[in-house]
Design goal:
Distance between the termini: 110 Å
Shape: elongated
Largest sheet: 6 strands, parallel
Number of strands: 16
Radius of gyration: 38 Å
Structural class: alpha/beta
Helix content: 40-55%
Strand content: 15-25%
């Protein structure tokens, strides 16, 4: 028995030793350099640079840092955006533990204005053939023209910021400044042929970019050098969540104008016809979303006031029914407001005539339908109260004649009635007038439409 027990104990001890040895060997193998497949985070930023896109970029960098990723690549295409959001993005890039690559692509796209500042701030900047960057001159956040002093201060501030980033990254300081002060833009060839260059690589697509990045020595913001290993990297795609997608879509001039117009119209309908509830709720939500978009876009508030005045005239048309006069003035005001609402040279921020005419026509059609319904309601005959009783049809329940009161049934009720002519029981009658609880009726030869 003792031998058996010793054998069992020895077997257990051997099993434990073997298991620990295997685990230790596996851990040592995994800890060897190059044994873990590198991870490259990839995200596409195809939007204006605003708080939503800044949040997305910051979250992506944070995830890459937490996952000890080899690299994070942002495929950037944007017409520009807000300076504050740009600074927040660049701060995240500078503070990131993971090297950050900004790739302007695919061919035919651009990274203008704020996108240019983000491109030169990256650890590695790359462009696809047929792309361009630049035109980073600042504009007023309200879309209104700045006076000479304010414009000079804003341009000087952004130019100094661009020089600082370009100098630290070893990129062309002079061209970086001119992109701000002179609104210069650069093709991919001009950017890489500059001395020193504005960008580091030209890559035809994402796969080509990863091949060129493999083995590249990258100098980080703090001066440390990092060698990238992307040959066999696993690409982890990161996308905006539903909230970010929604808010990013809202931050577009056309969507913002539609939301503002529909919101104002919805609240007007609710005030015109209290108790509808749905128009009020939808209108309130549309206005809140529109105001969020207006905080992001370079809005000219004169244009916004013109649109609001046009909507006010449309609402006045619904309430006063001037047969289209106020509605016409409202449409003109809204068209003029839409033309000057967004003051930006970027085509992506322009409303465009097709949108302006189409949206104004739709609003005019909705207003015309509401006015028509209102006029029909005002011109319709009363269906209740004393006025609703006049000319109503009923049936005599007893004989009625001069000096002989009787009873009639009309509108589902029995009324006392008098008449200047003789009426027999069962005859059809029509109400002539109402005096208190007594009706004056006349006899009909046949039943008319709208009987009892």
């Amino acid at each position: 028995m003792k031998r058996i027990r010793r054998f069992r104990v020895g077997f257990v001890v051997c099993w434990v030793v073997v298991s620990l040895s295997v685990s230790l060997i596996t851990a040592l193998q995994d800890s060897q350099p190059g044994s873990i497949q590198p991870v490259v985070y990839s995200a596409v930023v195809d939007a204006l640079i605003h708080p939503v896109s800044a949040e997305f970029i910051e979250q992506t960098i944070a995830r890459a840092d937490a996952d000890n990723a080899e690299l994070v690549v942002f495929t950037l295409r944007t017409p520009g955006g807000l300076v504050d959001s740009t600074r927040a993005i660049n701060t995240s890039i500078i503070d990131a533990n993971t090297p950050v690559v900004v790739y302007v692509g695919p061919s035919g796209t651009r990274a203008a204005s704020a996108g240019f500042l983000i491109t030169i701030a990256a650890d590695v900047s790359a462009m696809a053939p047929g792309t361009h960057i630049g035109a980073a001159h600042p504009v007023s956040g309200t879309g209104a023209s700045m006076d000479d002093v304010a414009a000079e201060k804003a341009a000087s501030d952004v130019a100094a910021y661009a020089r600082s980033i370009a100098s630290q990254r070893g990129r062309n300081v002079d061209l970086s400044e001119k992109a701000v002060t002179e609104s210069l833009s650069f093709t991919e060839k001009e950017a890489i042929d500059a001395d020193p260059p504005l960008v580091d690589l030209i890559a035809t697509d994402f796969d080509d970019l990863l091949q060129q990045l493999d083995g590249l020595v990258v100098k980080r913001w703090n001066g440390e050098n990092t060698v990238l290993a992307t040959a066999s990297a696993r690409v982890q795609t990161v996308e905006m969540n539903w909230r970010q997608e929604l808010l990013s879509a809202i931050a577009h001039p056309q969507v913002a104008v539609l939301l503002f117009s529909l919101g104002t119209l919805g609240l007007t309908i609710e005030l015109w016809n209290p108790g509808g509830i749905v128009p009020g709720i939808v209108g309130g939500l549309c206005l809140l979303l529109a105001f969020f978009a207006f905080q992001i876009l370079p809005i000219n508030y004169v244009g916004l006031l013109l649109i609001l005045f046009g909507l006010f005239l449309l609402a006045a048309e619904m309430m006063t029914a001037t047969y289209g006069l106020l509605a016409a003035g409202g449409i003109v005001g809204m068209v003029l407001g839409a033309l000057i609402l967004v003051d930006s040279p970027a085509p992506e921020l322009q409303l465009g005539w097709p949108f302006i005419i189409g949206s104004m026509f739709a609003l005019a059609t909705i207003t015309a339908l509401l006015v028509r319904l209102g006029l029909r309601a005002q011109m319709a005959a009363p269906v209740s109260g004393r006025a609703g009783m006049i000319e109503g049809v009923g049936k005599a329940l007893s004989p009625i004649g001069p000096g002989v009161p009787g009873r009639v049934e009309t509108h589902g009720e029995v009324w006392g009635a008098i008449s200047d002519e003789s009426i027999d029981t069962g005859d059809w009658v029509q109400v002539v007038s109402v005096d208190g609880l007594k009706l004056t009726v006349r006899r009909l030869k046949a039943k008319m439409t709208g009987g009892t």
